[in-house]
Amino acid sequence: MSNSKSRKIKPQTLRGFRDILPDQMMAREFLIDTARQVYRSYGFAPIDTPALEYAEVLLGKGGEESDKQVFRFLDQGDRDVAMRFDLTVPLARFAAQHIQTLGTPFRRYHVGPVWRGERPARGRFREFVQCDFDTIGSTSNATDIETLLVINDLFESIGIERFTIRVNNRCVLNGLLQKNDLQNHSVGILRALDKLEKIGRDAVVSEMVERVGVSEDQANSVLEMACLTGSPNEVLSSLEPLLAGNETGEHGLSCLRELFGTVDACGLPADRVALDVSIARGLDYYTGTIYETFLGDLPQIGSVCSGGRYDNLAELFTSQQLPGVGASLGVDRMLAAMEELGMVEQASTPAPVLVTMFDGGKAAEYQAVARRLRLAGIGTEVFPEAKGIGKQMKYANRKGFRVAIIAGADEFENGTWQVKGLADGSQEQVADGDLQSFVSDLLQ
RNA sequence: GUGGCUAUAGUUCAGUUGGUUAGAACGCUGGUUUGUGGUACCAGAGGUCGCCGGUUCGAAUCCGGUUAGCCACCCCA
Questions:
Q1: Distances from the Cα of A313 to the Cα of A61, A195, A309, angstroms
Q2: Architecture of domain A22-340 in CATH?
Q3: A129: CB partners within 8 A, 6+ apart
Q4: Would you say A137 and A324 are in contact if contact means Cβ atoms under 8 Å apart?
Q5: A420 strand-pairing partners
Q6: Is A353-442 the same fold as A22-340?
Q7: Given 3-state DSSP classes, what are the helix, strand and coil percentages for chain A, each rounded to the nearest 5?
Q8: Which nucleotides of chain B are near protein (any atom < 7 Å from a CB)?
Q9: Are strands A289-295 and A305-310 parallel, antiparallel or unpaired?
């Protein structure tokens, strides 16, 4: 071992990778637990896949840009391997490999870290957690609608009161493009359109003209339709004549009509789900419904849950047609938002009760009483040292314990416990037999 | 990957035109005669000023490189 004078290794994490401290990790676990509960309530089942895949499985799926961001190396057996950069491509491989066993429709959720070697920025890291759910093997619009309902329930369960799910359908966009003879420029136009909110209408028009190479008239007519505002039904009605006779566009419209009809029938608040013809999502593989979720109190942080429908997830792995629809909760971005909204408790302890060690000779009794409380379902920590009771109370306060239990010679003599509520300073002497129920009531 | 900004204690920051032992607040540890936290008072620990090199009698301060972080672009969660 090195002595104290030797040069120490500098404790540091890799660029874009970070440690997560308890306060933040507890919020993160809450978020993920909530997502799990909601996904499971709809019948989505958990899966996992390896962090490392053959490079050929992962590469070439998201264009040149994302290939550059993949962490890739030769393993000890000289295999060309790569770390997954999302959960969707591994799902494609997984589905192609196992769909015969699983059958369709197959609903799965998947929570796990992914890695991208891109330049870190605010809310953007080289290692981050995705929390995906998808339904594979059904083209029914019912699964699109259910995806929307899952997103809604997810944010309600997290405790967000004001949020909007913006919905669009690529078929509507593609219909508009076809009617304007622009289908060959769809990728560039959709990408430009996606920036509407951020850079403004004029900038989008000039990007379409300069970078995509369409005429100014064409660009303007796309934007005219993309900028329609009003209630979903109003927008749908305005779109109808613009898409008349175009099969793709009309299909998109009817899917959206059904979706908003279900939103009504399910009694979601009127402003909860919006139809926004301008959202396109950058990813090329979406082919139908598209979702983005914005927080009412923090819209500028961007979409915290996005997704959509894709026609053929696994075409690179199998000739079996596997359509799907799903979305992904942005755990890290959501966490950043929750911090800004004051939803992350500081200095919180996972256990609400602290048993102080007043008399070091009674350590066994303290452990025994803590165990009784735990068996009653009450998280309980025992202070490990018989320090001054003031110190222990200070610790209890700092860590956010809600109840402290204190017992010294007097209490042991008459078989009682001092139970103190940290919030209001109230303290009561409780008989040994009543302890569990008393503490449990106090924590209600 | 491109452009710009930044780097001093655990955290947020001061630090004069380069000049002795680098400061504050908060946090942390201990104490204010050892059975009670949030407030007050006292004390302590903690920094080779991101790292490497250069200029200089002398560098936290000026210059170069490097690493890391922030902002914008690109892309996305």
A1: 10, 26, 10
A2: 2-Layer Sandwich (3.30)
A3: A28, A32, A111, A112, A113, A114, A331, A332
A4: yes
A5: A404, A427
A6: no
A7: 45, 20, 35
A8: 1-2, 27-31, 34-38, 48, 67-77
A9: antiparallel
Q: What is the pLDDT of residue A48?
A: 95
- Residues listed for chain A: 444
Q: Which residue has the higher pLDDT, A175 or A191?
A: A175
Distance A273 CA to B64 C1' (A): 56
Give tens-digit pLDDT for A358-370: 998 999 999 999 9
Spacing of A14 CA from B64 C1' in Å: 25
Parse chain A into domains and list their residue ranges: 22-340, 353-442
Angle at A31 between CA A26 and CA A32, to 5 degrees: 100
- Note the helical H segments in A356-388: 363-375
Beta strand spans in A272-431 (E): 273-275, 289-295, 305-310, 324-330, 353-355, 380-382, 403-406, 416-421, 427-431
Q: What fold characterizes domain A353-442?
A: Rossmann fold (3.40.50)
CA of A413 to C1' of B72 (A): 70
- For A405-418, the pLDDT digits (tens) are 999 999 999 999 99
Q: Which nucleotide is nearest to A389 (CA to C1')?
A: B36
What band does A149 get if pLDDT is binned at 50, 70 and 90?
Answer: very high
Instruction: Measuring from the CA of residue A283 to each C1' atom, give the nucleotide at the shortest distance.
Output: B76
Tokens for A288, please give them. 């139908």
